User: What shape does this take?
Amino acid sequence: MKLDKLVGERFKERPADCVIDSHALMVRGGYMKYVANGIYSQYMPLKRIMRKIEQIIREEMDAVDGQEVLFPVVLPGSLWEESGRYESVGSELLRMKDRNGSPLVLGMTHEEAAVQLVREYGGSYTRYPFMVYQIQTKFRDEPRARGGLIRVREFTMKDAYSFHTSQEDLEAYYKECFRAYERVYKRAGLKNVVAVASDSGMMGGNISHEFMFVTPVGEDSLALCPQCGYRANMEAAECVAPAPASDGEKSRALGKVPTPGMQTIEEVCNFLNLPKEKSCKAVIYQKDDERYVVLFIRGDLEINETKLINFLKATVRTAVITEDSGLLAGYIGPVNLKAGCEVLYDRSLQGAAGLCCGANEVNYHFTGLNMERDCPGAVFNDFAKIREGDACPQCGEHAITLERGIEIGNIFQLGTKYTKAMGMHYLDSEGNQQLPVMGCYGIGVGRLAASVCEESHDNFGPIWPISIAPWQVHLCCLRADDGEAKAFADSLYKDLQARGMEVIYDDRLLSAGVMFSDADLLGVPVRVVVSPRNMKDGCCEISTRDKSVSMKAPVAEAADEVEALVKKLSGELTI
Amino acid sequence: MKLDKLVGERFKERPADCVIDSHALMVRGGYMKYVANGIYSQYMPLKRIMRKIEQIIREEMDAVDGQEVLFPVVLPGSLWEESGRYESVGSELLRMKDRNGSPLVLGMTHEEAAVQLVREYGGSYTRYPFMVYQIQTKFRDEPRARGGLIRVREFTMKDAYSFHTSQEDLEAYYKECFRAYERVYKRAGLKNVVAVASDSGMMGGNISHEFMFVTPVGEDSLALCPQCGYRANMEAAECVAPAPASDGEKSRALGKVPTPGMQTIEEVCNFLNLPKEKSCKAVIYQKDDERYVVLFIRGDLEINETKLINFLKATVRTAVITEDSGLLAGYIGPVNLKAGCEVLYDRSLQGAAGLCCGANEVNYHFTGLNMERDCPGAVFNDFAKIREGDACPQCGEHAITLERGIEIGNIFQLGTKYTKAMGMHYLDSEGNQQLPVMGCYGIGVGRLAASVCEESHDNFGPIWPISIAPWQVHLCCLRADDGEAKAFADSLYKDLQARGMEVIYDDRLLSAGVMFSDADLLGVPVRVVVSPRNMKDGCCEISTRDKSVSMKAPVAEAADEVEALVKKLSGELTI
Assistant: This one.
């Protein structure tokens, strides 16, 4: 490919609307173009990167006996009605009607389509296990598209669906897929990846993992324990129960104290000279039917609303406390709470004593609250957000660190949610009807490309790993009006291509500065510079985009050296 | 790949809803599954065929300097408003709104997206010509999906867009693309393809060609001249003017004759003892604004409504003739026609004389109509449908034959329709602003796959050309419970794979009949059968799906023979 023919513009200025570096560089480098909110076109360099990532994924899915299929982008609404998700999924699911008024949706995930495809095939236990996958365009009507390819509305995704006759078989296969995912990231050259236990959200099922690219620009928060290797999405990270209160604290009596006008934990604790850990905070939510939910939690902790929603199996919002609710904002406590609302207790209060809390009376709080004694029958569940330095739910060490990450893959053990809802059965070896157990496995291709760019770039452009780089070799001929330089560069271009290398060749009559800026933006790993000055010494320059290699090679050995370097770089990413 | 693991069901019965063979075989063979009207999922064998066709197309597009890009499936309505097609295209264009109420459409063709992608890049003449293409899912809300993959609503298409600084440059490139298309069909193994001049329809532009797979099950009609090679879609085939009438006919006087109750050409001609060629028929249409269009044509001819619509640049429908229209149905003629309607004359009437026609008076017709004399000022245009045996518009021989065909590709010279509407300009070498000239080039991948199947199948299944077959070799081990046969088949399977061949291996313990039925349905070109009986002779059987090769090979030479056969078949489809 001659660079002067490459469609797309490269420029120096960082676009004002690009918040993260990978987005800015991929716009500046002529990789992508904005079409609409969260919708982009891809120029040739990005399309080549995407195809290489897709091929890596395809090979790894084939290696775990996956069969590539293709599901439709446009699905009948009736299919999503079968699973119940036509109603339950929010407006991320783009719904529309065809010319006959039949409801259609744009596929954002394909569990329904997968079950529909194999429902009859999977009628006998002898056909299990099997896995089908596709690499296809998806659409999710995201309310907040951001970060270029990191969060878009239209995206290319590999999604896989496995079917099993037992939970044990699913779990064994799930582990194989887990390892296949690790290989995908390694081969794509992404280093800083951790797998975390995750909340399964709308997908259903129980056990699931997210593969997270750890980066400060990530949207997700991760809880990691460097002591034992525990890793979880903050949404899913369990908070362990604290040590129970001492006997001394437990023996203190409940006493009402006047706290005039003090409505916040800070005000009350300051006034009572208590640390916030010694308070019982009330947080009030409302369900869709307006009913109140009062959640008591230790005063120094925050609520993880995902845990709350999963517990309630219902969405909630911050409450509007009305006069007739029976709730006295600022003075709500677990003792003498009269209002007819649902009351929940966070695990942080389990066994706690010597706490202050609202007295359900304006301008009064209690002190000496002993949960066991004063709230008999309270059931404690985990609703709190884990914090830096908290106890690890796995090893118990107070070593939790928080990091930010971008989700670059997820795997779910779905159980029988979809097969049950959609009536997929098989006959077991004894002729009994059974429900197949499913797993599903997703990777966003564009998001992975952007993550690699985010991890591996400098101020001048991406530094693409050779396995996914748009080309392997970037050949620059400086002063292409010099006959000798041009003739050698032309012959080297042909030679490298004949050896099977992917070469982008820049023989424009431009300054070295412009040519090198463009080369930096294209981020091709191996660079060869031919110039009249080096030709005088019978040499050309060979270097890597990451600057780890920089050498001069005699012209007669140039092609051999480049080939060896390409092989070496490729070998480093081969598993 | 082991056949016993292949997801998808194969069966014998022809599905009742399958009209054409390729559809029936691709359903029976486990290639595709119905999801909704015109929407299918693809199982692995079809997905593999699709990918091979896509790769052939990709290579041929790259060979004409195309750059692979990717446009969005979901496009903002505003982009289609720029070209005017948001309004002008009918309900094939699926329109919807996102969560914020912004109009979106599903891309059915991507001229707008192509111009949007390169509008800034193409700002200088130095950057021309260039071509971008994509292989992507499209959606067209077809009123009548039919024939399996022949006419679907969701489909995979390669669409390419070229940009030029002159019509001459476009024409030169158009010819290159024309030849690239011929190579695609040849490499995909489709033989019976003709390129025909076509009507450009909603795409705009003037010169365009359709590549037609000639088959009795085609939806399109083609006019072909075996004498000179003229080829056109019937929609676009020109009808030439007939020889002028003789002086004797011209000299006959116009005379009114009573034709009581006779309203059809048949009745009037029978009564007057005239051939239908000697009548002037009136066909009445109405435009969207209710205005009448009266088209006179020779009585033996039919109207090609596409020609009429293109001439009027407006859609028309068959008229409802009301009493106050001034038109007397059954008696309408060109002389004394009073009604205030648009009057058109088909070229078949040019120079004609001695005709009968309506007298615009109930129960009366004229005879002796001389167009030149009696319809002074009439302008004659081509509105007729060409017929078998008609004069060829190219060589004049009365040799036209009609065939049916399936459109498997189309190429258009678009001119400046889109660049003008969307404000894409470039500066020429003298600094003047100019409009780029565009071409566009489409191939439906699934329709091509189905066409190959339609052309190349027998009663038992498809006969895939090796270039697009899901696998190259189908290995059957009969009686896999026989140790010797199974051991040899297993080793041959490994050997063939190690030599780079794509093998599907059937070692199920089933009857030879079932195994061969499945092999026929999968249509893999080279078949190897290992059986205990042949093992006794130290042989296995090697044959081709099309039965042109059938041999026994000693086991020691089996892999060599298979490899040679695969190479020979591949070589026949290489250009």
